[in-house]
Design a protein that fits this description.
mainly beta; 2 domains; three-stranded antiparallel β-sheet; two-stranded antiparallel sheet; 5 strands; flat; MIZ1-like_pln
Amino acid sequence: METLRAVSMGAGVLPVPAGAGGGVSGSAADEEVAYMRGCFEHLVGSWDSESLYMVTPQGGGTGPELAVFFVRL
């Protein structure tokens, strides 16, 4: 988490520390950690649907930067 301290909003992949790769899978890509950091609004539409909206910290008023929808089938 110390690596992400300077990030206020964004997404990416944290690299595997040197010497930490080569586990059971043998691939460093299997051990990378993807992250998304930002300010999210959580909305529940109904019992079987939810959404997350990433909003800009400055409140630019241009709409959400990213929208993720979850629907139970």
